[in-house]
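Hi all, posting the design record for the shared folder.

TITLE: backbone redesign
STEP: 1 of 1
STRUCTURE INPUT:
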């Protein structure tokens, strides 16, 4: 199987397995306990927190562990909107965000918040100046993703944050970096964001674990109440094994980031160039914009993506028609719709996403398979 769906979930890295394995039997303690077994778990948890914080240039106390990217986004949006008690602030975001952000905003709106959706251009990008024009003292949070999970187009997060802060310095800015972190380094100080969400399984870590970076002093109401873990911001017993695995995956990614970008972008570019040679009417989404190195979102006119995906699967190539959260849905991608794409054109789009486990030559091989199957369907 040629796997080109890393944006949905990436295989566990060997370093991840190695870090997690000791917790399979021996290191099983609850890190909230006080005896020796628990202390071992607590030490491992805090070592992972320290490592992760150093990799994103944060303070360890600013790292809040969650059960994944969706929970982290929910905590960012709802936690900010609810932090004012009965006062529900405005939520400024874009129509191309992940559903975890959009649906969290809609839920907050049902309780009194106001949603402001800024328009995006044909590449799916929102203008920093327009975003900032909506900021007031009533703004609870501005949430713009670092890179789109479907198209791979990168947003100018530094510029957006600077524009927002120039209008109202204390306005909280969140970025969903779940996909962006795979290709791009994250430095929360350089980016200037107050909240940032990550999910481990996108870069070779385990599923079911993620984090929310929370800048010190940022008011945030918890979604989950109970034992008061994570300094009261997220209660519940920690999954130490998965957290350790996430830290190991992040360390492995950072250690090879430059090589990863060179190797994976070469495969992605070869895939697109070979496919365009075979299918001259191929349309590459966001070709003129900055894109993540590992993502290729393309439209093959005259070929329905559902039919092509079935053919590709039979040919042992894994890809997707939209984000993993929408891949089984019959509706057209809200991202492509917001970008102005017609429903018929959107149903001709596919996402191919490369990752750490792909090998040299995979791009060319994939292009040959895709072209052959598309031509057969035509």
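Okay, here is what came back for every position:
SEQUENCE:
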């Amino acid at each position: 199987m040629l796997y080109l769906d890393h944006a949905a979930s990436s295989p566990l890295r060997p370093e991840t397995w190695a870090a997690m394995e000791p917790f399979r039997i021996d290191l099983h303690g609850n890190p909230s306990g006080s005896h020796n077994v628990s202390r071992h778990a607590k030490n491992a948890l805090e070592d992972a927190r320290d490592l992760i914080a150093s990799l994103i240039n944060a303070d360890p106390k600013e790292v809040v562990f969650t059960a994944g990217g969706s929970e982290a986004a929910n905590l960012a949006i709802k936690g900010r909107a609810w932090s004012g008690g009965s006062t529900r602030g405005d939520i400024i975001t874009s129509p191309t965000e992940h559903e975890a952000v959009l649906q969290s905003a809609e839920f907050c709106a049902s309780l009194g918040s106001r949603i402001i959706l800024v328009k995006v251009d044909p590449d799916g990008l929102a203008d920093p100046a327009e975003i900032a024009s909506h900021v007031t003292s009533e703004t609870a949070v501005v949430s713009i993703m670092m890179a789109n999970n479907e198209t791979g187009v990168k947003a100018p997060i530094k510029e957006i944050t600077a524009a927002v802060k120039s209008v109202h310095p204390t306005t909280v800015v969140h970025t969903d970096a779940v996909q962006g972190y795979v290709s791009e380094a994250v430095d929360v100080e350089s980016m200037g964001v107050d909240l940032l969400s990550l999910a481990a399984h996108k870069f070779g870590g385990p599923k079911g674990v993620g984090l929310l970076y929370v800048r010190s002093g940022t008011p945030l109401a918890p979604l989950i109440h109970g034992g008061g873990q994570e300094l009261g911001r997220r209660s519940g017993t920690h999954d130490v094994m998965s957290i350790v695995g996430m830290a190991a995956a992040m360390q492995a990614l950072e250690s090879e980031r430059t090589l990863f970008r060179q190797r994976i972008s070469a495969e992605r570019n070869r895939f697109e160039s070979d496919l365009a040679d075979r299918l001259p009417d191929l349309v590459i989404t966001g070709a003129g914009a900055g894109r993540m190195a590992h993502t290729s979102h393309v439209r093959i006119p005259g070929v329905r993506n559902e039919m092509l995906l079935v053919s590709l699967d039979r040919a042992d190539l894994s890809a997707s028609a939209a984000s993993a959260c929408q891949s089984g849905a019959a509706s057209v991608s809200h991202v492509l719709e917001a970008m102005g794409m017609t429903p018929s054109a959107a149903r001709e789009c596919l996402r191919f996403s490369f990752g750490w486990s792909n090998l040299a030559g995979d791009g060319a091989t994939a292009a040959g398979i895709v072209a052959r199957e598309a031509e057969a369907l035509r």
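COMMENT: The longest helix spans residues 257-278.
Let me know if anyone wants the other runs.
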